[in-house]
Amino acid sequence: MSSAINFAFLDEYAKREIRRSVLKAICIPGYQVPYSSREMPMGRGFGTGGLQLTLALIGEDDCLKVIDQGSDDSVNAVNLRKFVEMTCPGINTTTRLQEATLIQSRHRIPERPLLAHQILVLQVPYPDALVIVEPSEEKRKTMHGEADYSRLLVKLYEDIVKFKEITISHRYPTRINGHYIIDPSPIPRYDVPKLNQSESLTLLGAGREKKIYAVPPYCSAEPLAFNDVPFRIEDFTGANGERRTCMICSTSNSFLDEFIDEQGSRVYQCSDSDYCAQQQECVHG
Amino acid sequence: MDKILEVSGLSQIYGPGCDQCFTCTGPEFETNICKHCSSIVALHDLTFDLYKGEILGIMGESGSGKSTAVKCLYFDQMPFGGSAIFFNNKEQKHLFTLNPAQRRSLRNQHFGMVYQNPNLGLNFDISAGGNIAERLLMNRVLNYSEIRSRAHELLTRTEVLTERMDELPKNFSGGMQQRVQIAKALSTRPSLLFLDEVTTGLDLSVQAKILDLILEIQAELDTAMIVVTHDLGVTRLLAGRTLVMKYGRVVESGLTDQILEDPQHAYTQQLVASAL
Amino acid sequence: MGYVAIKGGGRAIQNAAEALELLRVQQGESGLPLNIEQIENQLYFLHSRIVSEGGLYHPQLAALAIKQSLGDTLEASFALRAYRSTKARLLETPVHNTANMRLIRRISASFKDIPGGQMLGPTTDYALRLLRMELLNESTEQFQAVAKDLLRHVPTATVPDSFPKVLDSLRDEGLLPNINPAGHDGPFDITREPLVFPVPRSAALATMARGETGSLLAIAYSNMRGYGDVHPTVAELRVGYLPVMLPHPITGELIEAGEVLMTECEVVAMYQDNECATNERNSLPSFSLGYGACFGHNEVKAISMAILDRALQKGMKDGANNPSEDPEFVLLHIDGIDSMGFASHYKMPHYVTFQSDMDRLRTTQSKQESSHE
Questions:
Q1: Is residue C298 part of a domain?
Q2: Same domain, C75 and C170
Q3: Residue in A with minimal Cα distance to C370
Q4: Both C247 and C109 in a single domain?
Q5: Do C114 and C34 belong together in one domain?
Q6: Which domain holds residue C67?
Q7: A135 at interface of B, judged by CB pairs closer than 8 A
Q8: Taking each helix axis from N to C terminus, what angle separates B174-186 and B144-157, rounded to the nearest 10 degrees?
Q9: Lowest-confidence region among B212-226, C167-181, C182-196
Q10: Mean pLDDT, rounded, for B82-92
Q11: Across the interface, which of C6, C190, C193 has its CB nearest the CB of A71?
Q12: Are C51 and C110 found together in one domain?
């Protein structure tokens, strides 16, 4: 029997269905468009939603960058990139953000702002921000339709009452174009403002939950908050009151990974490995 | 006086229903079960008007249809037939022709409900203040300190210890839960408030305090209320006008004092006599 | 540089794949590879499970999937499903009548004498679960001798090509509602349409047909044990080969394209007062029906599915009183591919989100501390 696989793995009908869903998602910013979502040869939860978007969009002129946790070389990013290279002969891949036309990412948005010719695909485990207050999807759809987010806001209210702070760390509920609230995927709060009025299109794909949604270019994306208790991003201020810097490239304007070095002290390093490398080039080059 | 609600011919049947349901049930047949199709005729031909600032009592024993009436008007269930018009300033809303979204919006903004069972009216998983916050947030109050101060104000008004504002209402006494429920129902200053057996099951002293509170609030806010109760005392204290119901029908209606002093229908006479 | 966060992924993956392959050939040079026919025939029930949960009737590739996944049922079904994603849907079969099945087994728990008779067929139901030590060192000769002996004694008496369905006799007596063909839309294809609740019954049936056996069993069992009210009777359980009819691409005439091994189960349960399945013709109460069917020989799965179908119909009509009656709860949690994938994904790095969690925790801790001072 033949082992030949179609360009980009999926059959053409599947790709067409995904592209139609993408168009609908762009037309209704933040609305979760249901689609049939095929089984991919990697686990549900490993980015099959993002991967289906990438495969439906990619063509021979495209240059793909895949990152996970900000890194091009993490196990999952490598795995996904290899799969796309294998099934899409002729495409290019890169680790340099500026060269990429299509960026698939898990848990991060690159530090450098994306441009109009670039599309960001985010992998989504839980597409619906309302799931923390309502388990039934049928009811959640009604709440979304009527933009009734009072129960989600009560969650924030209760947080402030209990902890004097909103405790949602990532997957921060974000209102798109003044109506639908999305789960922006498990990006840190640090990355949420990058969705707002972005030059590039952001597509979010949940494979297991079978949903596609979008933040179109130049669209508003406001993190949910109270007028008098603003949304706050992660704080990298050190004990001395100064912003912590990356131990490798010394930049002080990036999201940092924290870890304990061999001497047992706490050190910081850019989470976006491409950004870190390019900062080093600037210094040394 | 401004009319706020106009109900006419409201009826409700539980079961398949048939042509003869209405003709073989009611007080004169001493049943609300249709002998032809075994359906329950919970309500038939309920008609009344309600005016701004008025308290209307609906009195009857269990199975008389009084709670069914309120459930239909508050959209907890759809009636079998009849109509109801809600007047909001110059606007008229035909309740049973509204779509679900319009119904929810009316419920959230203009109606309030206090159930006999606080479990239905309160979310026991969030704090007392959070319960009130939810109603305010539904109505687009998006300022945390404003929500806090309004919740504080409402709970003070309903005599809930404000230091317990951030506790879960499931740990409160029954009377306290009812007070929180009332505060929640009032948070949006609804023009129409439904009270379904709100004091049933509470201690007599607590009952009296809650009834006083309702009267005070009504005087303050001029809220129209429909009070459903089986308790003659509650009707006497709260309601200006009363409907007496039995087997899904209104058997007597008029000014409460008149009904209690000089009951016309045999059933009302029996009720009044047994209460004395 | 002391630490590199997550570099070197590519090589690690390659090595991991080799380590897994080593596991498969760990018997060393004395080992023999499993052949596909042995898997298909001697691991019959495992194979049945993979065809069913993989949702693709391809006996040869199902056996391959078992081989390459070292017998992991979830992985094997997964590989089969992923293969299916590369194939377009070219044709649709019409609705098939399972009365046409060529049966190897059929039983009824509702009547002793059913039209056509009971046929026990291959089953472990009455077997003593004693380990057969003689199979430990079974030789090729012994194996073939057993086969030869059994085949020689197969009676020539013919089994009919098909059997009437037990349900038809219940229907004739008015104990079951009649089939109302007008009330049915075309079947819902879960491979081409997402489940958007509420979903039609055919979507529920299709989802369960390729659901994971253990998940279906667990939820159905909860319903039987008291988190639900179904006391079902198996009206008929049948296992056999169903001829698959496909329209000829040019003439449109139906032609037999092959046959699939499948298991079908129909349960009936007493009506409940508030949910009496009223018959359209008259309003007499009648039994309510639950239906289960899947590829392969999977009796526990078919029974579980039938019980859940009955429970879900009740939930769709009157609202769910138990998890097993809630369509969202049941249908979104029984797919083995989805659930195992998500459980596995927790093994992936979550460094960034964990960093955010720490930020929130530290901030709230310091706020609490300062408010206690």
A1: yes
A2: no
A3: A164
A4: yes
A5: no
A6: 18-84
A7: no
A8: 130
A9: C167-181
A10: 91
A11: C6
A12: no
Same domain, C103 and C248: yes
Q: Which one of C56, C84, C112 terminates a domain?
A: C84
Tell me the backbone φ, ψ of residue B157, rounded to 5 degrees: -60, -40
Could you say which residues from 157 to 186 on chain B have a Cβ atom under 8 Å away from some Cβ of chain A?
166
Give the global pTM.
Answer: 0.82
On whether the CB atoms of residues B196 and B59 are closer than 8 A, the answer is no
CA atoms within 13 A on the CB side of A128: 24
Total domains, chain C: 2
Question: C8 falls in which pLDDT band (50, 70, 90)?
Answer: low
Architecture of domain A12-127+173-223: 3-Layer(aba) Sandwich (3.40)
* Set of chain B residues whose Cβ sits within 8 Å of the Cβ of A229: 144
As a whole number, mean pLDDT of residues B157-177 equals 91
Q: What is the C-alpha separation between C182 and A149, in angstroms, rounded?
A: 41
Q: Which residue of B has its CA nearest to A164?
A: B144
DSSP single-letter state for residue A170? B
Residue B193, both tokens: 């408030």
Interface test with A, best of C64, C77, C86, C87 (most A CBs within 10 A): C86
Our measurement of the distance from residue B131's CA atom to the centroid of its chain's CA atoms, rounded to an integer in Å, reads: 19
- For residue A10, CA distances in Å to A48, C81, C92, C210 come to 12, 12, 20, 21
Q: Which domains does chain B have, with CATH numbers?
A: 54-83+100-110+190-275 (3.40.50.300)
For strand B91-94 and strand B81-88, is the pairing parallel, antiparallel, or unpaired? antiparallel
C7 falls within a domain: no
Determine whether A27 is an active site residue. Answer: no
Residues on chain A touching C206 (C-beta within 8 angstroms): none
> What is the per-residue pLDDT for C4?
42
- Report the C-alpha gap between A101 and A262 in whole angstroms: 39
In a shared domain, residues C78 and C121: no
Cβ burial, residue B130 (10 Å; 0-12/13-18/19+): buried
Give the C-alpha separation, B243 to B251, whole Å. Answer: 8
**Active-site residue flag, A282:** no
Same domain, C183 and C293: yes
Mean pLDDT of chain C, nearest integer: 87
Q: Which amino acid is at C145?
A: A
Domain range list for chain A: 12-127+173-223, 238-285
Residue C272's pLDDT is what? 54
Check CB contact of A165 with chain B, cutoff 8 Å: no
Q: Give residue A56's region: left, alpha or beta (phi > 0; psi -120 to 50).
A: alpha
Those chains having 3 or more beta-carbon pairs within 8 angstroms of chain C are A
Nearest to C236 by CA among C130, C116, C126, C318: C116
Res B204: pLDDT? 84
Please name the residues between 34 and 93 in chain A that touch chain B, using a CB distance below 8 Å.
Answer: none
* B15 against A195, higher pLDDT: A195
Q: Using one digit for the tens of pLDDT, what is the confidence trace for C331-345? A: 999 999 999 989 988
The answer to whether C139 and C273 have CB atoms below 8 angstroms apart is no
In chain A, which residues have their Cβ closer than 8 Å to the Cβ of C88? 11-14
Interface test with A, best of C332, C348, C367, C371 (most A CBs within 10 A): C348
The pLDDT-based confidence of B160 (bands split at 50, 70, 90) is confident
Does a structural domain hold residue C311? yes
